[in-house]
Every structure is written in structure tokens, then in C-alpha cells.
Amino acid sequence: MIPILVLHGPNLNLLGKREPDIYGHLSLDEINQRLIELGNSIGLKVECKQSNYEGELIDVLQRAGQSAKGVVFNPAGYTHTSVALRDTIAALDIPVIEVHLSNTQAREEFRNRSLIAPVCVGTISGFGWYSYALALHALVNIFGQQAS
Ligand code: DQA
User: Fold this and answer.
1) Local structure of residue 114 (DSSP, 8 states)
2) Taking 80 as the threshold, does the pLDDT of residue 148 lie above it?
3) Structural domain of 14
4) Atom 3 in ligand 1: which residue has the minimum CA distance?
5) Per-residue pLDDT tens for 109-134?
6) 16, 32, 88, 104: which could form a disulfide with 27 (CB 3.0–4.6 Å)?
7) Mean of the pLDDT values across residues 87-98?
8) CA 45, CA 47: separation in Å to the nearest integer?
9) By three-state DSSP, how is residue 122 classified?
10) How far apart are CA 72 and CA 3, in angstroms?
11) Residue 147 in this model has a pLDDT that exceeds 90
12) Collapsing DSSP states into helix, strand and coil, what is residue 27?
């Protein structure tokens, strides 16, 4: 099983209650459970973490560089503001995929720009919890290509 970190940024602990018309009705625990089960079925050992703090997200990402083979990251509001998180990801040697529940390109203009996207292998946005699932499949594909 390949170790993968799924990391959720600020306010995603409120999923289910927070603007459900935009972010859906599933709680963060329910999403994490689905991702762990999906991971088990496609050869990934998924560990899920969430933080509301930029510095903690940085620490977790730095540690993942030593312990995980890939990261699925929803930077939430920090997507649009954080040079520090971008620098952290740029320094990692493992693939990071940016995900969003909502389609950030179809929302307010300030959400159209991601400081994180240029240092990720790709971005998946707009499919609700399934954005994360698609990212896990993308990682399996990346690892398959590396092996061949
Ligand atoms: C989000 C989109 C961000 O713009 C927003 O700040 C979030 C959630 C998403 O998953 O759709 O908190 O990352």
C-alpha cells in the first residue's frame, strides 16, 4: 500500500454545515471515510488531516515529504493568498494535487486565482467530495507511469 496524505485546509472541518449549497452535505469525517475506503481498494494507504492554521499545514506538508509518496491538498481559503504554502509545496519532491469541492473558476473573481496551482502536478475542482477521489486515481496513474 502506498502512503498518501489527504490534507484539508481552513474551515473544511465545518463541511456538512458550512454553505451546503456550495460544499455539499457530507461531513469531513464522511468524506475521509470514503477516501480511506477508496484508497484501500486501489492500493493507497490514505491518512487524512485538517488544520485551520497556515503554519500547521506547512509543518504537516513538510513531514509528509518524508513519510508519504503523494499528497491531495485542499488549501481552501489559503489557495488564493498563501505564498508560504506555495513555497512549501515547491520544496517537496513528491506529487501534490490541488483539489476543490466547488468550481472555483465559476465563483467570485478572487477565487479564480490560485497561488498553489503552479507548484502542483494538477488541479481538480468542482466535483464535490469526488474531486478528492479523482485526485487519488490520478496519483495511482502517476505512480504507474513512474514504475513503467
Ligand atoms: C474551496 C474553495 C475556496 O475558494 C474556499 O475558500 C474554500 C473551499 C473548495 O473546496 O471549493 O474554503 O477550497
Assistant:
1) -
2) no
3) 2-147
4) 76
5) 999 999 999 999 999 999 999 999 99
6) 16
7) 98
8) 7
9) strand
10) 11
11) no
12) coil
What are the grid coordinates assigned to 98, written together? 490541488
Per-residue pLDDT of 32-80, as tens digits, reads 999 999 999 999 999 999 999 999 999 999 999 999 999 999 999 999 9
User: Structural domain tally of the chain?
Assistant: 1
Q: What gap in Å lies between CA 12 and CA 93, rounded to an integer?
A: 26
Cell numbers standing for residue 67 = 513519510
CA of 99, closest atom in ligand 1: 10
In this structure, what C-alpha cell is assigned to residue 22?
456550495
C-alpha 2 – ligand 1 centre gap (Å)? 27
Q: Ligand 1 pocket: which residues have CB below 6 Å?
A: 11, 74, 76-77, 79, 100-102, 104, 111
CATH of the domain at 37: 3.40.50.9100
